Amino acid sequence: MTTLKKGGGRAAATLFLAPLLALMLSACQTLPPPQRADSPPRQTLDVPFIAQDAYQCGPAALGMMLQWNGLPGDKEELVHEVWLPERQGALGIELKAAGRARGLLPYPVETPDALFSEIQAGHPVLVLQNLALKRWPVWHFAVVIGYRDNGERIILHSGTDEATSSHWNRFVRTWARADYWGFVLLPPGELPARVEPEPLLRALAPMQIDALPHWRAAVARFPDNGRLRFGLANALWAAQRQQEALDAYQRTVALAPDLAPAWNNLAYALRRAGDDRGAREAVCRASELAPDSDNIKDSVADITDGNGC
Amino acid sequence: MKKQITGVLTAFVMLFTQGLFVPAAQAAMVTTDGMVANEQRAAMEQKVMRLMEQDAAAKVLAQNGVTPDDVQKRLGRLSNQELQKLATKADQMPAGGSVLGVVLAVILILVLLDLLGATDVFPAI
């Protein structure tokens, strides 16, 4: 990218430039792709391509992720949904929210290792890149659809280029300048290759539509996690499956006996089932665990008919 | 009908509480989103309060006639969004280790909380 002028005053220039050059060289140290990329040494996913119009890489990238999920990903409609004219761009959180609104799970992919894991599991990854400088950013959304040469080259649907390839080294710099921001967008029942319970909880918690199959998958993957079980119980309750919800709340408090919100909700599920005494005991347990919570104070008043614990 | 009411309530709750613990008058079950938001809020408040516990911070507070309790009360009144903004600002301050960093961060927080009477950053308070 940078060329040094040859010619007069060369010695002086060398003297002056030497530290600068050393700095540049250290900055240009190559970052190898993670070892994970060795097996298999290449992989390309079949992801529909949508070319972007001026500045509209966000809607185009989202459209590709939706179409990969078998949903309509009409770019023009998505422009209305996620593109902000005054910023001439889309916001990352809006892209995730748009996926969530369609019942898809957006899960963060924020390390090179996770990126390759997801590609190997067949999941395309929407990434944010900063194509310019940290202080003078040029943001760009693209979809990573594969890699070859043991990860030395990464394959992307980017801008107007279908399945274009980029040196890993160059790609990872642009991705690092965007704080390694990226995510997979998965259909109900499917989980990321790399998944942890807490990020999964945070990814699923705001989901309003078709959340139940996602929670079921989460609990199947982490059966001993009380907090995910709580999410499942709430999703069952929201789906009017009260008996199943009651069972799930009971499992939750067995797995996570210190989780005050679970005791609170168990109280309501028990009351609905006609067990007033059990409801009182549960809400009082919640109150012991979280004496300062206004919500639980109200619950105690509600469940005990104002008598308190 | 019931579903409709639940829907309206959910929209209402989301609009006004941004996923905080839901007042029982509206719905007494705690949503998963509400639990997560509540925990994140508690963590942010704790972060600010831990900063206030440092020696350098205590001096700044004393000089301005402000107690940690005042700070805690003001934090409690912020919306999630406001608290998030404040935490981000505080994070940007190089508070790590240096006394000057702590002092600057504390002053910034006091200004943002309007406890120094210098500005009116959050007019709602």
UniProtKB/TrEMBL annotation, chain B:
Record-annotated membrane-spanning stretches: 95-116
Signal peptide: 1-27
Protein name: PA2779 family protein
Domain of life per record: Bacteria
Swiss-Prot/TrEMBL keywords: Membrane, Signal, Transmembrane, Transmembrane helix
InterPro entries for this protein: PA2779-like (IPR046735), UCP029543 (IPR016924)
Keyword Ion transport recorded: no
Source species of the chain: Alloalcanivorax gelatiniphagus
Pfam families in the cross-refs: DUF6627
